[in-house]
Amino acid sequence: MSNYHPLNEEEAIQIARTIPGIFSAEGALVCREIGDGNLNLVFHVSQPTSGSSLIVKQALPYAKVVGESWPLSLDRARIESEALIIEERFAPGLVPKVYHTDNELALTIMEDLSSHVIMRQGLIDGGVYPRFANDIAQFLARTLFFTSDLGMNQQEKKVLARSFANPDLCKITEDLIFDHPYTDADTNSFDPHLQDDAKQLWADTELHLEVAILREKFLTHAQALLHGDLHTGSIFITPESTKVIDPEFAYFGPIGFDVGAVLANLLLHYASQEHWSSNEASRQERRQYLINTIRDIWTGFEREFRALWDEHGQDRIAKTAGYQDWYLRSLFQDTAGFTGAKMVRRIVGLAHVSDIDRIPDPDVRAKAQRLALTIGKNLIKRNRQLTSIEELIAIVDKASQA
To answer: 117-401 in CATH: which number?
Structure first.
């Protein structure tokens, strides 16, 4: 019989005490539950006398944002810890260290990143992160290449993919990103002033076709081991350090989905500058910083992915002249489409972003929301025609000048 039960703070302390090499034998431990996500309990356990600390994360058997009526498999905790270990192998220093896992209790005990801030909040506060574009490009290129058929033995990849079947969390993505925003679903959530915009989404069959194509790729294109939920709330950051967290949505899917998730959240923040920038000059400066970051992420990712392919490619036939160019062009088009889909769902779907939701003036918030929708819809509709990051940026520029 399983010993699973949701932990309390005292139990988290007792478990943290068993982790070797973290806390001194003398000195009390202090614990507080800090989780503000939708799916888990997160405990911060520290020892004031030594200054040591760690994080105890426990999956709940349901979606906390909804309650026990939305059950979820606890196996996602194992998936998260194993994904972090793989990501650390291929992108060392860009994820938190995992100290211990307990699959029965659905626990992952890991490095405390309290010296960092959640990137979403850091951006809202006006943070500038000069290392981020290179760090995230390296993370994406290395974790995705080395878990793809290009970078690992194809039979070993098939075996590994069995460990990352993640039906419950994939179902969340399938519904909330590729279905519900395009129909009058009960899960949708949007401001009343967006009612007409939502109805236009629901009636736009040209858009629906492109979403259906993207959805098919998410369902069937097992290109690499994805993080699966790589937004700015899943990144801890300082100007000198980037740490990717929370890969509990990890599964084998289309590479462009992860890349697009990062770009989408930067573009949502771009749209939110209607409020967070105090005047037009600062708005233009902040948006240019975000556009430069997006450009640097894609160019850095493509450069590193090609270099890894040239040096570590496993497949002879994949070295055929022209194939690498075709693959990266297709990957970019996927990235653009998934970027758009990620943006649309954050405006009309179940879970939004605080960058926009925290805008107090409803008129300003509406302007930011509609800009995000315009960019997102255009990227979805045009993704299969795009050939360069500059064309994606031109879509963003045109929407913001309208």
So the answer is: 3.90.1200.10
